[in-house]
Amino acid sequence: MKIGALIENGPMDWQIIQQVNGKTDIYLxxxxxxxxxxxxxxxxxxxxxxxxxxxxxxxxxxEELEERKWKTTIRDVPSGGLYRIESCLTRSDNNAIExxxxxxxxxxxxxGDLYVIAGQSNSAGYGKDxxxxxxxxxxxxxxxxxxxDLASHPMNESTGTIxxxxxxGANPGHSPYLSFARQLKRELGYxxxxxxxxxGGSPLxxxxxxxxxxxxxxxxxxxxxxxxMIKGILWYQGCSDTxxxxxxxxLDRFESMVSHLRGELKxxxxxxxxxxxxxxxSPSTEIADRCWGKVREAQRQAANKINKVFVVPSxxxxxxxxxxxxxxxxxxxxxxxxxxxxRHIYGRSTGFQAPDLAEARKVDKDRISLIFxxxxxxxxxxxxxxxxxxxxxxxxxxxAQIRSYEIENENTLTITLDRELKGRCQVHGAYEQNPKHxxxxxxxxxxxxxxxxxxxxLERL
Length: 461
Hints:
The protein has helices at 121-124, 177-188, 214-225, 250-265, 286-305, 327-344; strands at 4-9, 16-18, 23-33, 41-49, 55-61, 63-65, 69-78, 80-91, 105-119, 139-142, 148-150, 192-196, 232-236, 272-275, 309-312, 356-364, 367-373, 379-380, 391-395, 398-400, 402-408, 412-417, 426-429, 441-442, 447-448, 452-456. α2 (177-188) runs parallel beside α6 and α4 (250-265) runs parallel beside α5. The chain is an alpha+beta fold. The strands form five sheets. Strands 2, 4, 5, 8, 9, 10, 11, 12, 13, 14 and 15 form an eleven-stranded mixed sheet that branches. Strands 1-3-7-6 form a four-stranded antiparallel sheet, with no helix packed on it. A hairpin with a 5-residue loop joins β4 (41-49) and β5 (55-61). It folds into three domains: 4-103, Immunoglobulin-like (Sandwich); 112-344, Rossmann fold (3-Layer(aba) Sandwich); 356-456, Sandwich (Immunoglobulin-like), CATH 2.60.40.1130. The termini are far apart.
């Protein structure tokens, strides 16, 4: 028969609970069972460190309800863990509480930050090559089964799923986000929880509630199951929108999704950490190149236009097939995302931003200067020839060839063309479906520039 204190409402084993200002409250409720009918029987709960057994929150009495029910809120549980939540049933006059009647326990609970994984296949994770990226205590995952567990790859596998809307059609593989969480846990000193909601091949329309919105609603249901408390969104999506029409409207539709998400969660500053589209190496067309460029430009503009949206590049990443990042590339992307998070969400001095085109200016009839923000040391082009540089210039007469280039003032790339420019000029950088490999980098971080497309060139003043 059941006996003692029974926990029927509370965290799951392995759950990470979102902290606010370094602490959280934990609600518990349940019933109790005993052959003794004494009115002095009461339920007590406490929290201890799981590694040492040291007391974090001492035994506290729970509120009695009718029909042998009870409830309580353990307040101001500090960030950290892993914790064990214990309960017991004892007489209120029992001073030797260590000899109480048994109670249920909840194991491996952490208090830290939760990040939701959203987007398509490179967010779901399809790296298929070998890499050492093991599970780590304190990095936990809310799986598609609706249960918390130790986070491990593949994160979006669908064993026992309760979310049919984001069930993968094939077995996924390695993703960037265990690497991301490991960097945060190491720097912040408390657990990180990951919540998987991505789906390979999904278009932005599935995430925008003003369109189809099916994956948006699925994501919100999952977030709701965690009390609508998260730290941020990890977003990697866009390949499915690299067509005419969809690429033109990507920025507006992405902004719509962000607005709805922040509105529902009542957090206008909810951070959105994004990855600019990687390369795809299958055969391309002029239209495809243009559409990939437009989506990448929309992603770049989103980070400049929308508060608390951040972006990292991926054009330098190796692939495990024609479109999915390799496992080693995912480790790098996880570190880049963590660096951005540590700098802009947590106020740390670590991490680098990608160089971002601030201005393109005509300095002569056949010369243009590209000036970049966020260059920590100097721009570097691997000393490639001009025709190998992943920069393009377009005017009324079409594309002009780059004859030579030079780095000036560490953050300025000045290019000389093979002819005079005619009419309105635009510059593009690493925009194609499969850009040239010589993408300029910041030498201090070796992070490539953010891709850009259709940036108009200013006339020299």
